[in-house]
Amino acid sequence: MPVPLYHVKAELFRSLGHPARIRVLELLASGDKAVHELLSAITIEPSNLSQQLSVLRMAGLVEQRREGSQVIYSLALPEVRELLIVARSILQARAAATELVDEITRPRVAD
User: CB 48: neighbour CB atoms within 10 A?
Assistant: First the structure.
């Protein structure tokens, strides 16, 4: 029996559900990075980064390759970059809506 699409989507979003994973994807959106570059950009223990990268690999969001002694990570699909852009847009729209609500509910000063 096929898995419903909404279950598969939920798994995808679960794989995005950690700040370190989002940060890794953001860094990779600007280009391929070696593990040491990711470690220098994220305050995280190497073992924890390894776990987070494993989750992203299993979700099909990142790929790895070896170049000499280095492991290089990249986004598996260009759509991952687009997903991050859309997420930012949603958050900006939500923030703008919240500011508008705050402005509407704020008491006015009499002229």
Answer: 12
Sequence letter at residue 63: E
Domain span at 81: 5-105
Give the chain's domain count: 1
Tokens representing residue 70 in the block: 């280095």
Tokens 């570059």 identify what position?
37
pLDDT tens, residue by residue, 58-108: 999 999 999 999 999 999 999 999 999 999 988 888 888 777 666 666 665
| Structural domain contains residue 22 | yes
| Radius of gyration, CA atoms only, the chain | 19
pTM of the model: 0.84
Domain-located, residue 50? yes
Gap between the Cα atoms of 56 and 50, Å rounded: 10
Q: Are 10 and 4 in contact (CB under 8 A)?
A: no
Could you give the CA distance from residue 56 to residue 63 in angstroms, rounded to a whole number?
8
